[in-house]
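Example (one chain per record):
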Amino acid sequence: MNVNAPRRLLGYGFFGVMVLTAIILAIFGVVSLKSDKADTEFLIGISQPNLNESRQIAMYNEIRNEAEKHKNVRLIFTDAAENSEKQINDVQKLLHYGIDLLIISLNDSEKLTPIVKEAYKDMPVIVLGRGVTGYDYSMFIGSDNLAIGKKSGKLTADLLGSKYSKIVEIKGAIGSSSVEETSLGFRAYLERTPSLHITKVIDGNWRRDQAEDELRRTLTAEPDIKLVFAHSDAMALGAYRAVESLGLHDVKIIGIDGLETMNGGYDLVKQGTLSGTVTSPTGGKESIQYALDILNQEKVIPKKIILRSHVITNDNAYPGNEDVAHAESLSKVLTGSALTRKIKLGVAVVGSESSWRAANTESIMTTAGKDPAIDLLIQNAEGNQERQIAIIRNFIKSKVDVIAFTPFVESGWDEVLAEAKAAGIPIILTDRKVKVEDDSLWTTFIGSDFVEEGRRAARWLVENKKNVSGVTSIAELQGTSGSAPAIERRQGFEEVLSQQASFRIIASKVGDFTYASGQQLMSRIIADGQVPDYVFAHNDDMALGAIKAIEQAGMKPGKDIGVISVDATKLAFQAMTAGKLNMSVECNPLLGPQIIKAAKELAAGKEIPVNIITAEGIFAQDTAKRDVTTRKY
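Predicted structure:
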């Protein structure tokens, strides 16, 4: 991927630029081009699936408005008119024209994945909304559909109470992953209230008129429906018109999107047309901001950005939250050419269980030490959850401005995080997530996509297995029981292998991310007579321990038994160079810059993404000697 010297149009002169503009308008059906031609430095192509949905129009306007703030940016828009073949052709034309970066909102994820992969070979690609299969893109910006569904479920329960009520769900494109994730979250929350029943599911196909017609038929047969949940505000408006046409007055309607446009969700809630909506940001503004970071070769570029969603009802005039409110008040103290005081950042380190953790802690301390705006308070819980909770409580008592910590395990944090929220202190989760009843108890997660790490390990195994025919046996060495990396890496690994009949996990043992546990577990597996073709260890330290156990058993790691892991530390590269480790999926520990940046943005009153996922690679024996020279940990 080439992100170096951007292609410039300055050499064409004014007349040449005008001719090129005319060609683009004629060939591409360009919706808008920035007028500051003489200052053009970056040319960004935007491929949209359509320009008739309110959401896509809002995305288009966000992109345009943000780009207008930068004189060195020109935009080329294309409209696929809801046709995937046309969108593929649009992207090919944009690539041929010589854009510096592609921003694409997909009409169909499966059909568009190959062209995104092709484009990514030559330039940065930012994907909006629907994701692609695999990892061949520069950045994904989207929403957490499962969380949006759960928030919609909570809104439904709040509106209906505990009385027996019938509900209609109006889906967008039935079968699409984003739609099904939203529906899954919605239903998961409603399971808590047995009196609420989804009695009908309608295919609205994202269209207001189709939602209106289908709901009218449903309500004619079942007029006792109490609430309609539509997967977009446009379909929710159609639902409202169906209800009005039948003279029904006690049907509540909620939607998704919350756009601040005419007849957008925010407007419809203010008018009383909808009982509520959940915001699903388009990512248009952020796509331009990150596009410039990429083109300017900024050092810290995330792989995925998941934007925060909010519930909008008649009771809240604007979809804000406590974390942002605290940040806004904090920013009043900290703004100005000279800070009146430093930002107090409390960091509760989970422990010292691995070389990865040591690099992670060092990254935070080094970054904070170089930043004059940060006053770092850091303590190590040494692998004890009770101690980590006590550290957080001490930070609250000390009135720090922001708290960052890596949870020892997923559960058991509700009480202390509620205390932080009550004190107005935003929480940054790093490396691992928590499971809490109220997700407003934490502000953002900064770290890796553990599920994708597991998937990538499994995909590599499928593509590189030793045995061409026959069943490939695998032993899995899990990390700390109950921790997010252990749970999610296993989930992603088994998800991919479940689709492969020629792979079988013959043993799965729980460790604790340490060298010693990896050695002990592998020794036990071999002693039990379960000698696998491959070992998948959830981190490098356990993989190195497993390598020692394999050698003690008189076998050659990397040959007799293949070994794959997660982290890609220098020790792993040394093992790959020696032929003992076959592959390691990167899990980047250098989170310090992003943690400090997030703390400062909160202090500046900015709303930050709910998930910031780091960019990571895959490393194998054939390139280990070359790649080890670039490792910083």
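Caption: The chain is about 40% helix and 20% strand.
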